[in-house]
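Predict structure. Chain length: 138.
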Amino acid sequence: MVRKNPNIEFPKLMPKGMIIGLAASICTTILGSCIGAWLLHSERIAEENLGYITLLILLLSSVTGGLLTIQTIKTKRLLSCLVFGGIYLLSLLALTALFWGGSYSGVGESALVVFSGVLSVALLGAKGKTTTRKRRRK
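Prediction complete.
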C-alpha cells in the first residue's frame, strides 16, 4: 500500500485555503462593522467604545479566517496561519489605502490583534482535529 505524502498536497491546498479564509474574514469584518455601526446609531453603546469594538471585530475575523484556513489545508497549521495573518493584514492595509487615503493610524494595534488571533488558532488548533494518524498494525 502506497501512502500519500501530506507535504505534496500542501502546495495544492494552500491557495484554496487562503482564499476561503480571507473571504470568511472579510465577510466577518464587514458584518461586524455593520453591527457596530447599528449599535452606535441606535445609541446602545457609547462612542468612546468604538476602538474596543474594532479590535474585537478584528480578533473575531482573524480567528474565523484562521480556523477555516487550517480546516481546509489540514497540515502545517502554524505556517498556514501565519501566512493567512499576513495576507489578511495586507488586505486590511490595502482597503485602508483605498477608502481612507492612506491614514494608517492604529496599524500596530491591528497587526497585534490579528496575529494574536491567528497564533491562538494555530497553537490551539481546530477543536477535535489532530494531524497525526493512527498506524495500522499487521
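Summary: The chain has a mean pLDDT of 82.
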